[in-house]
Amino acid sequence: MRASGGRWPSRSRALVADPVAHRFEYETHTDDGNPSSALWSWQVTPVDAGCELTVTWAVYRAPGADGLLGARIRRPALINEVRTSLAGLDAHLQPSKADALPGSS
């Protein structure tokens, strides 16, 4: 996990993996015992000849955490993380684009 210039180990636990409904949900939290967590939901909806992907998340901060200020700082970072995930997913689904990813060989 990366945030505000820091980096630390985290774990995710799948809550829903429904290939029929095209939905995936998971919870993520740090390994250090901090009770803060995030719930992520990815929903694919068929649209015309393609699909639409909706990604939502809810962040649950530990009592006494930096609250609203932390959420305002973290939101842009989460948006960038989703964009990075989508670029990686796109490259995975279209191998010809894999060479364009940093660190690819």
Structure commentary:
This protein has one helix at residues 67-93; strands at 2-3, 6-7, 10-18, 23-30, 37-47, 50-60. With 105 residues, the chain is α+β, with helices and mostly antiparallel strands. The protein is globular and about 45 Å long. Strand 4 and strand 5 (37-47) form a beta hairpin. The strands form 2 sheets. A 4-stranded antiparallel beta sheet has the order 3-4-5-6, with no helix packed on it. A two-stranded antiparallel ribbon has the order 1-2. Helix content is 26%, strand content 41%. It starts with a strand and ends in a 12-residue tail after the last helix. The mean pLDDT is 76.
TL;DR?
By secondary structure, this protein is an alpha+beta fold. Helix content is 26%, strand content 41%. The strands form 2 sheets. It has a 4-stranded antiparallel beta sheet with strand order 3-4-5-6, with no helix packed on it.
Mean pLDDT: 76
* Strand order in the sheet with the most strands: 3-4-5-6
Order of helices and strands: EEEEEEH
Number of helices: 1
DSSP helix fraction: 25-40%
What Rg is obtained from the alpha carbons, in whole angstroms? 16 Å
- Poorly predicted runs of 5 or more residues: none
Shape: globular
How many beta-strand runs? 6
Given the helix and strand composition, which structural class is it? Answer: alpha+beta
Report how far apart the termini are.
Answer: 24 Å
Major sheet characteristics: 4 strands, antiparallel
Beta fraction: 35-45%
